[in-house]
Write the structure tokens for this entry.
Amino acid sequence: MAWPVVDVDQLNQLQGETKEIERVMLFIGSLKATGGAATAAILTGGALATADKAIAKFTAVSDGALKLTINGTEKSITGVDLSAVTTLAQVATVLQAKLSSLVTVSWDDTASHFVVTTLTTGAAATITVAAAASPGTDIGPLLKLTNAAGATVTPGTAGATVPNANKVIPVNTQTDFDQLLGAGDSVFKTDLQAAMRNAGDNWFGYVWILNEDEPAVTFASAAEAAMAVCSVEGVLVSDDIASEADILRASSLIADINAKWQRWVHVYLSVQGIVPSTESWADYLSRVTAYQQGVAESSVTLVPRLFGAEPGVYVGRLCNRAVTIADSPSRVKTGPVVGLNVTGKLPVDKDGVELGLATLQALNKARFSVPMWYPDYDGYYWADGVTLDVEGGDFQAIENKRVIDKVCRRVRLLAIPKISDRALNSTPTSIATHQQYFAAPMREMSKTVRIQGVTFPGECMPPQDGDVQILWRTKTQVEIYIIVRTYDCPKGIKASVMLDLSLQGGNA
């Protein structure tokens, strides 16, 4: 009789919770360097008394030696001949000739001391007091450049700096932006604070700070460097674009990130607002609409600075967890945007004409993502999340692009463990099984979710039979085709009201 045995194997099906990057953004913006110019390191000798300045003491030296450590490297000079000097300034000149590649040497007649200054500036500039030197006559004590003689060292300083520049920094609602970006006001800080306030609870993102005085580091190079550290849904460029070239640069960045890391990233570009001293609203429309003419890029959004903080407000709205990623930023029930018009006044043009809904509508039709308001309905809202997809394209609405990008991310993670797995093959059973397998992201995303007491439809509709097709091209190459269906969304509502004056209650 066999002893009863139960075997339980622990299997890793690679179907655990997917790492979600939706609502996580990378913010890139420039700051102006603060502080003075970079300084050199200075060795100030002790003061020479009247007796110490007797020129005969110096002309007696024909084989002088001096040892200093400059910028971390020990430098010794020998054969210093002072026999022909007639002034202490000439002594400095002789030393200068010996050290010309590293420092300048001068005599300060007022303070009666020698001064040695590094040619290098910045924090890397260092110098030491003179150490004992040989062979020959050690002239460090004669020049009073030694510690014992009262010489002092002032290290070089970095000068103007940008805090936390050129590195990836995580941020959340607890971040001290004054500490991160400096105490002064800046456009970048305004955008970050606006994003945080509109995103609400559990906001999280990454920041890359550019130095305004380092044009070699662009938003594109910064974003690519950041990809090695973080994976994000989108990138907000807080610096206003100057031309169509910046849009094309963003398009190239998107393609590079997808090719190198297989990540689907959206780029949000800030567009300069009106110049109220010289432009009318018609002038402004003409100038900025030219930026996007002929550009087709569904992963780029242009956000004009009309009030000032629109880029941060908009991206924060997209990060708000009170709604799903399938909900449009124009959803009124989400509530008014926060911190858009802090002055309480509408922007005006050179003629004093206030920003009107007609101008906002024109910008929206020109594929700019802009705020709006409803007469007799309090608050500011968003018109729509518009991308630079072709006019009439399926991805002109940001919510459609976010949904399809999410499906792409999850299908990719499901496909990777299937590489060289013979369980995925061309037999009918395997194809049927894997149709269900690759439909899993859509099944998950189609689930109704309840957020803060409000029921939201799924991010997409449940997959139907035939929405996943698996086609074997060769014995080693397989292609998978997936159809994603989103829910309808009312962005225009037309209501007709009919008056009925017929008799009520059957009275003649």
